[in-house]
Design brief:
Residues 33-138 form the PurM-like N-terminal domain. Pfam families: AIRS, AIRS_C. The chain has 2 domains: 8-144, PurM-like, N-terminal domain (60s Ribosomal Protein L30, Chain: A), CATH 3.30.1330.10; 155-326, PurM-like C-terminal domain (Phosphoribosyl-aminoimidazole Synthetase, Chain A, domain 2, Alpha-Beta Complex), CATH 3.90.650. A hairpin with a 2-residue loop joins β12 (305-309) and β13 (312-315). The chain has helices at residues 8-15, 60-73, 94-110, 141-144, 164-173, 175-182, 184-192, 200-209, 221-233, 248-257, 276-288, and strands at 26-28, 37-41, 44-53, 79-88, 114-122, 130-140, 155-159, 213-216, 236-240, 270-274, 293-300, 305-309, 312-315. It has a 7-stranded mixed beta sheet with strand order 8-10-7-11-9-12-13, with helices on both faces. Strands 1-2-3-6-4-5 form a 6-stranded mixed beta sheet. It is an alpha+beta fold. It has 11 helices and 13 strands.
Length: 328
């Protein structure tokens, strides 16, 4: 099997299709394009999501906080807490644990999120540090049922650009090599993208401003996220290549390693589906907060998912192993 998360087909056939829906309290269950579970708690709902960090050991404490908090934000709500399970190989040191926790605590404080607990152990079952993070959020149950139906003609908004997290990881992991190729300024520019991997602000704005559904861009990159949203909606799309922002450092790094920036993991980018009447309001509020964004495409009635690049029309395939794993 390929390194990375299972393909959408594998997830559906091996896992999702076999799960039984037993509890009436469970409002949202696992599915393609679904970032979170939603559980009924009376007047409020509990929003939950879980993710591991496996693609890098650098900045792992920081990433473990953000990736799961981003999933919670995709439900239009700020996260309130996370739980961390840390698995360390036998060659780890107490300094490794201290560094991870200092990073995680610093990021959690920035996001006003509590670390609620978890588990930490040394095990020969892993050969490098692995962290699994579970996030929790809370919102009024009435808000769950306010979401408008996704339909043909709805617009896709992307914040910040493509390949943000992947560029940062590669610049940290391949720092010396990239400095020789492009110089220190470019590498530091790429590393600095790791400071923009939170999508909590845009998630809350989207939730307040009428985004119909949101999906943070992780493994599989922008095109993987688009494909999953279309599957969730049961629609196709046209995506306009010239509307997708690609940072200078991302472009250089991806060309250097011959990888696709649109298929590169991109925590820090939020995909939003919005009706034509809401899209400009959302964009205006994002820009007020200094968050770059653009309309990159629209949903269409047919099931074809297309990337329009100048005169070329390219099929958008289901997400496969992330481009990051070709490099690190």
């Amino acid at each position: 099997m390929e390194i990375g998360k299972l393909t959408s087909q594998q997830l559906k056939e091996i896992i999702f299709d076999k799960l039984k829906n037993n509890r009436k309290e469970v409002i949202a269950r696992p599915g393609i394009g679904e970032d979170c579970a939603v559980i009924d708690y009376g007047e409020n709902v509990c929003v939950m999501s879980s993710d591991p960090i496996t693609g890098t050991a650098k900045n792992i404490g920081k990433l473990a906080v953000h990736i799961t908090c981003n999933d919670i934000a995709s439900e239009g709500v700020a996260p309130l807490g996370i739980m961390l399970t840390i698995m360390l190989p036998p060659h780890s040191t107490e300094e490794d644990i201290k560094s991870i926790m200092e990073d995680a605590i610093e990021e959690a404080q920035k996001l006003d999120v509590d670390i609620l607990g978890g588990h930490t152990e040394v095990t020969d079952a892993v050969n490098r540090i692995v962290i699994s993070s579970t996030g929790i959020g809370l919102k009024p149950k009435a808000d769950v049922y306010k979401a408008e139906k996704i339909m043909e003609g709805d617009l896709l908004i992307l914040t910040k650009g493509a390949g943000i997290e992947g560029t940062g990881i590669i610049c940290f992991e391949r720092e010396d090599e990239l400095k020789k190729a492009f110089g220190e300024e470019t590498v530091e520019e790429g590393k600095a993208l790791m400071d923009y991997i939170s999508v909590i602000t845009e998630g809350v704005i989207g939730g307040q401003s009428g985004a119909k559904v949101m999906h943070d861009v992780t493994e599989g990159g922008v095109l993987g996220g688009v494909w999953e949203l279309c599957e969730l909606a049961g629609l196709g799309c046209s995506i306009w290549m010239d509307k997708i922002h690609i940072h200078r450092s991302t472009s250089l790094v991806c060309k250097h390693y011959n990888i696709d920036p649109l298929r590169l993991i991109s925590s820090g980018s939020m995909l939003m589906v919005a009706g034509k009447d809401k899209a400009q309001e959302i964009i205006g509020r994002l820009e007020e907060k200094g968050i770059g964004c653009s309309i990159i495409g629209r949903l269409e009635k047919c099931c074809d998912k297309k990337l329009v690049d100048g005169g070329k029309v390219i099929d958008i395939d289901p997400p496969a192993s992330d481009e990051l794993y070709k490099v690190v």
